[in-house]
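Team,

Forwarding the record for the chain on the shared tracking sheet. I've put the sequence and predicted structure together so nobody has to dig through attachments.
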Amino acid sequence: MLVGYRVRIEDPKSRNGHRTLPLDDVLVAALTELRKRQMEEAAAAAPAHEGSGYVVTDALGRPIHPEWYSDEFGRMLKRSGLRRITCMTPATRP
């Protein structure tokens, strides 16, 4: 969750806050390769590497800020020449 642009990690409010996702063999192989690469980066960056335990991190093991994904998506759209789109939930539709 974001509080004042800072990421705040808390336990889920209920059991439903935990999810189990099915992973096919291709995704398992990709995640295994990513983990190997992260371990190599951690060794190269030690002792500066933070080792947060997250899947998606920067080169020092810090989690990526959630707003980066939206910002990067916008940059990719701009580079590709596509028009900007937004995702709207039923609560945000006019």
